[in-house]
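@here heads up, posting the sequence + SMILES for the magnesium ion run so it's all in one place. Ping me if the SMILES looks off, I pulled it from an old spreadsheet.
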Amino acid sequence: MKTALFIDRDGTILVEPPVDYQVDSYEKFAFVPDAISGLKALAALDDYELVLATNQDGLGTPAFPMESFQGPHDLMLHTLRGEGVEFDDQLIDPTMPDENAPTRKPGTGMFGKYLSGQYDLANSYVIGDRITDMQLAKNLGARGIMLCNPEVGEMTPEDGLKAVKDAGLDDTVDLVTDSWLEAADFVRIGKRRATVKRTTRETDIEVSIDLDGRADGDWKISTGLHFLDHMLSQISHHGGVALSIKAKGDLEVDEHHTMEDVAIVLGEAIDKALGSKVGIGRYGFALPMDDCAALVLLDFGGRIDFEWDAEFKREYVGDVPTEMLRHFFMSLCAASKCNLQISAKGENEHHKAEAIFKAYARALRMALARKKFEYDLPSSKGVL
Ligand SMILES: [Mg+2]
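bot reply: prediction finished. Complex structure tokens:
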């Protein structure tokens, strides 16, 4: 099935003149920063048709004659064409707001072709600068990306995020950003987010992870083991990932099943969220922490290998048995399909455990990091 990018014009590609919101002369003509670069990156993707979708209030009336619209509009199209950006379709609604026409965005009256069942709208995006664009995304059953660049518009990304929440569009809008380049890269890669649930007779676990740390709201870590919660929050904080872990395990037996299964589900979530792995750093390494030296080497090359060199003298740190730390990382390694080598030295057992988690988190951060506009798999074999 085909997918499309429905792209708003004014405020998104062209700066919306604050005087009357009409681009009806060359004096009012200006591109939004990085719009050309962003569109060029999107046009290079083979997956999407580019569709311009714009409301032009009163177009064709004396207040906004067609001639004064056409010149700047053609200049925009011509400039973009020179950069390899061609729209497959242009949807322009000329009605005024008080007409309440079904064709006016966020109405879907202009979008009949795309609603005919030939388009995979759930994987299509609306890119726009107004909440009505995001409402349109919802009405189409598409995803929304909201551009809020305060240099050229009224809203900061924070304002945009609030507007999205106030309008109840959290489930539709995937990204609010001030950057066209970030928006384009987001379309290319999609969300690196996953939720994995696992229920056995021993544990009931749900892990959600966003590798780009974009998730907000009340993501919590709760495993019933306080020290483990503290360590997992280090992975979130130092790894730059958003993490939610809800685990209920048979702690009345002991800590083993809970720690093992949290590691397995977390590892599966990391692996799932990594998706195609294009553009990732793949490798990570990290070094000293506090008075301890913790060394973590990590490779998401797809082969599983695990090395551990850390001894603990105390049986417990907090409510976590130290023998389970090795088992935790071994399970995490296998489930996330990585090569993981960990060694740690130090006197203070709490610090040593914490150093391992922090070093792992830092290594994870490096390995997960994606370079913008880098489309290659970090492997000479072409497979990870
Ligand atoms: Mg707009």
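MO: The chain has a mean pLDDT of 93.
MO: One more: The two ends are 27 Å apart (CA to CA).
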